[in-house]
Amino acid sequence: MNDAPPIVARIREALRGSAPRRDSASALFAGAPPQYATRIRKFAPAQPMRAAVLIAIAESGREPGILLTQRAEDLKTHAGQISFPGGRCEPDDEDPELTALREAEEEIGLDRQLVEVIGYLPDHLVISGYQVTPVVGIVRAGFEPKPDPVEVADVFSIPLPVVFDPVNHRTRTRRFPDGDVEIYDLSFGARNVWGATAGMLMTLYRTVTEHTT
Question: Most buried one in 44, 60, 180, 209, CB count within 10 A?
């Protein structure tokens, strides 16, 4: 893609040659800066369940953006939250990429043939009991979301310039038994992206900016 937008080109370069890193020792805590990972890891399960999400960068429209879902309000867990397409790794899934692509197909109707996987971020531990592999991919132009109404209330795109502008990174304090931790939310208009989703977006931001500075 010679005409790739600059941010997309930077992401491609920063993730070039990356591979899934699925050992718990190198996993980040979803939502907190890297320096807190060691201290918080002890609050996560010793044997977390494996999961994967797709950080899908859509290049259609005026500017590239990352596809996010608003979960249905009547779900038993994480109702109404903003998240990436993704879910638990099934026994037949050969790798996290397959999990992420399968879940995106089921949740938002994204044909895996439209996705070019360009790399991976480090695994993220979620206190609810998961170790999540973020798979980053480029979605070819022309994709129209077809959300599963049982799981997904809405599909929207957050522009990459919003993710990469520090003015939109909002800190708040989360209390743990052995001390407070600063975590990040990400503001986008009336929406507030928080928790594991915001944490993975911040990891993408740090990975790219540290690679290019």
Answer: 44
Of all helices (H) and strands (E), which one includes residue 183? strand 179-188
Name the band, by pLDDT with cuts 50, 70 and 90, for residue 193.
very high
Give me the phi and psi of 151, to 5 degrees please.
-105, -30
* Cβ(142)–Cβ(47) below 8 Å: no
The pTM assigned to this predicted structure is 0.90
- For the chain, give the mean pLDDT: 86
What distance in Å separates the CA atoms of residue 48 and residue 132, rounded to the nearest whole number? 9
d(CA 211, CA 12): 11
**Cα 90 to Cα 49, 50, 86, 178, distances in angstroms:** 10, 9, 12, 35
Helix 195-212, helix 6-15: angle, nearest 10: 90
- Under CATH, which number does the domain 6-164+195-207 receive? 3.90.79.10
* Helix, coil or strand: residue 25: helix
| Structure token pair of residue 116 | 């070019």
Helix (H, G, I), strand (E, B) or coil at 167: helix
Return the domain boundaries, the chain: 6-164+195-207
